[in-house]
Specification:
alpha/beta, globular, five-stranded mixed β-sheet, about 300 residues, 6 helices, Rossmann fold
């Protein structure tokens, strides 16, 4: 029976050569993406910035609505079609998107490391990346075997394939699928499929390729139940991340504990965070997570 750890964890990411959290405060953050620096809103940066003067090549100015509207103010030097970045052997294109992010989520770096730790020594694993976005996690998993990458956005899947080609991984065994994640998981259950590991990063609200509506609080329990049916006692992990919601990590940890109660292993939960560059860098929380590991 999987044991639920009640003590929350902090899974903190550190900067690397192509990314860093330079400073944060007063509801904003300053980040470096390769040679460029950008300012973006960050409500959880409630403290004062450490630096008095933020020099940046662009800033995202939020709109008046709460659903993520806004615009970029960019220096003319910023490549509008994006520029290449790297994380370990993964390669991908960073770009200022209309959704305020830059085409990947750097706070996921410790998650990618953790998944690979769970698959250490395996080169024939079968893993599933639901809501796979632009595929950096898929690249990380593909070192260990087959990956099924699912996202409802045709554009995101195309970018994920382009990123894999940029990394020289276009020949790795990856299934690239434009599909509604919940419907796909349900079909996989009916097919009797199983996976060694599953990562899922569902949005608070979204639509599938045929207009299917996704609401996290309403539909997440059913999706987790289907994910449980795709795992067995030999599977290695499940990792769930949740952004921009008013709930505790203990809530999603409890959801996993209920759904995976008959599996061995441990369920943990807590915050994802990114550490600022430099000595005594502060931790900026970004999301909550819950994870199951077999062992």
């Amino acid at each position: 029976m999987a044991d639920l750890s009640l003590q929350p964890l902090i899974l903190a990411g550190e900067g690397w050569s192509d990314y860093g959290l330079v400073d944060s405060g007063h509801g904003r953050k300053l980040e470096r993406y390769g040679p460029w620096r950008f300012i973006r809103p960050e409500p959880q940066a409630m403290w004062a910035p450490r630096q008095a003067d933020w020099q940046a090549h662009g800033e995202f100015v939020p709109g008046s609505d709460e659903d993520g509207g806004g615009r970029w103010n960019l220096d003319s030097s910023v490549p509008r079609d994006g520029w290449p970045l790297a994380w370990n052997e993964a390669r991908f294109t960073a770009q200022c998107t209309p959704f305020r992010h830059l085409g990947f989520f750097p706070d996921m770096a410790p998650v990618w490391d953790w998944m690979r730790e769970q698959l250490a020594g395996q080169d024939d694993a079968d893993t599933l990346n639901l809501f796979g976005y632009t595929g950096v996690g898929t690249q990380a998993l593909s070192r260990h075997g087959r990956v099924t990458h699912v996202d409802a956005s045709k554009k995101s899947v195309a970018q994920a394939r382009a990123n894999a080609a940029l990394a020289g991984m276009e020949d790795r065994p990856v299934r690239w699928l434009v599909d509604d994640a919940a419907k796909f998981a349900a079909r996989e259950v009916r097919r009797g499929r199983r996976y060694d590991g599953i990562i899922l990063d569902p949005p608070k609200f979204g639509r599938g390729p045929e207009g299917e509506v996704w609401r996290l609080e309403e539909h997440l329990p059913g999706l987790i139940a289907d994910c449980r049916a795709l795992l067995d006692g030999q599977s290695r992990f499940l990792f769930l991340t949740v952004y921009a919601v008013r709930m505790s990590s203990l809530a999603i940890g409890g959801l996993l504990a209920e759904a995976l109660a008959d599996l061995p292993g441990t369920i943990e939960h807590g915050d994802l965070a990114v550490r600022e560059d430099g000595p005594h860098g502060r931790l900026l929380p970004t999301a909550i997570f819950a994870r199951w590991r077999n062992g």
